[in-house]
Design goal:
CATH topology of the largest domain: Neuraminidase
Strand order of the largest sheet: 1-29-28-24
Strand content: 35-45%
Radius of gyration: 22 Å
Oligomer: single chain
CATH superfamily of the largest domain: Kelch-type beta propeller
Structural class: mainly beta
Largest sheet: 4 strands, antiparallel
Helix content: under 10%
Number of domains: 2
Shape: globular
CATH architecture of the largest domain: 6 Propeller
């Protein structure tokens, strides 16, 4: 993504088989798919969906088992080694039937599983809303959130995935962001970076780093950057943090995209073509797909190689078509995925100069189905293993995509709003 060239946003039209539009939901990406859980429209929403960007296809997942969460809003969801971890989304009370605040989804089995959270831990975080959650190494870190009538929290908790044990990592002091909610946080090279949110009733624009090695907070001073914000969302893209939307108040959402460079400690507002500007959004979700967004358990100080920076074409993916079995043989439909050609800078300039928008060319992903059938001997397990391997392969070869899903203002009785921007570096 260039700092000088304007970005091209594209709205992805959704079919009827898709979640309704919503806000205060949670989403994350894993293995080439986007998962969306809960939130609100005119009331609470308790459904759970998986979205394939390549196929442009939504699949509703089961959320009715005794291990699944109930209706949640302002909760968090992170991915780690084949599992999705959902935390918070409601407030504990004397009338609450919720036994805990943590739920776990097994991606391979596509079902909710009972979490092995240590009940014997002397301390565990209470339920909350509007907190942030990031993953660094083998630990999920949760900061802040609105807890109960006492208001927002300034606790920093860690859940170690290996031991399933919680630990309270920071205590009230002057060298921390203080109690807040509706902020955003990302993880980058062993640190958590936190921006803005509500502190009491006042929106903030302060920027903090928590170092997991030294377990200390540092307030980062920058000469420019986003204004006071709440209800915004952020992701890490290579050596930068991308922050989108939010508002200085609940009723005035924005559509600005900001980029913070970790190496230079500077903010830059990313311009977009007038004809492709995304809508104002607050309490939405942002997520990234592609090699530059792929999280790693361990961070590296080495820069991406030239080979890593190249956009590779999608490879062929085999997936089961209508299953007509011939003994131990089955038909396989070959699907080839490709990305439309991007416009050159000159074409973009000409287009923006005439006031027309290249809606049919830009950054859409297309799916080309070839009527090619092949027969081979295969078992159900082999097909499943191959499908998982190909999903991982597709994830590696996706172009870098920033997705903005849902948020206020929202459209009642309409499919969820999904906007896409393809990211490239010069």
């Amino acid at each position: 993504m260039s700092h000088s060239n304007p970005s091209l946003w594209t709205q992805l039209p959704q079919s009827q088989q898709s979640p309704c539009d919503r806000y205060k939901h949670a989403c994350c990406s894993y293995s080439g798919h986007v998962y969306v859980l809960g939130g609100r429209d005119s009331s609470g929403v308790g459904d759970f969906w998986k979205y394939s960007v390549v196929c442009d296809e939504w699949t509703e997942l089961n959320c009715t088992s005794d291990a699944a969460p109930e209706q949640l809003e302002e909760h968090s969801m992170v991915a780690h080694e084949g599992f999705l971890y959902v935390f918070g989304g409601r407030l504990d009370s004397a009338y609450s039937t919720c036994a805990g605040a943590l739920w776990v989804f097994n991606v391979a089995k596509q079902k909710w599983v009972h979490c092995q959270e240590k009940r014997s831990s002397p301390q565990r975080p209470s339920n909350r809303k509007g907190h942030s959650a990031v993953v660094i190494g083998e630990t999920m870190f949760i900061y802040g959130g609105f807890v109960d009538v006492k208001g927002p929290s300034q606790e920093l908790w860690g859940l170690h995935f290996g031991t399933s044990g919680w630990s309270l990592l920071s205590h009230p002091d002057s060298s921390s962001p203080g109690p807040r909610h509706s902020h955003c946080a990302v993880a980058y090279r062993g640190s958590m970076f936190l921006f803005g949110g509500l502190k009491g009733l006042r929106e903030q624009r302060d920027f903090w780093e928590w170092n997991s090695s030294s377990q200390t907070w540092t307030c980062l001073k920058t000469k420019s950057g986003p204004p006071r914000l709440m209800g915004h969302s952020a992701v890490v893209y290579r050596d930068s943090m991308l922050l989108f939307g939010g508002g200085e108040t609940q009723n005035f959402p924005q559509n600005r995209l900001w980029r913070y460079s970790f190496p230079t400690n500077t903010w830059t507002q990313v311009a977009s073509l007038t004809c492709s500007s995304p809508p104002d959004k607050i309490h939405h979700c942002c997520t990234g797909l592609g090699p530059s967004f792929t999280p790693t358990c361990c961070w590296s100080s080495s820069e991406p190689t030239q080979q890593d920076q190249k956009h590779r074409p999608f490879r062929n993916r085999c997936s089961p078509a209508a299953q007509v079995f011939l003994g131990s043989r089955c038909d396989i439909e070959l699907k080839t995925f490709s990305q439309n050609i991007r416009l050159s800078s000159a074409e973009l300039d000409q287009t923006s100069g005439t006031g027309t928008c290249p809606q049919n060319r830009g950054t859409h992903l297309t799916c080309e189905n070839q009527a090619l059938k092949k027969q081979w001997s295969c078992t159900a397990e082999e097909l499943l293993d191959q499908e998982e391997e190909e999903d991982e392969d597709i994830c590696k070869h996706l172009p870098d995509l920033l997705l903005v899903l849902g948020g206020r203002p929202y459209s009642r009785n309409s499919p969820i709003s999904v906007w896409q921007m393809t990211l490239t570096d010069p």
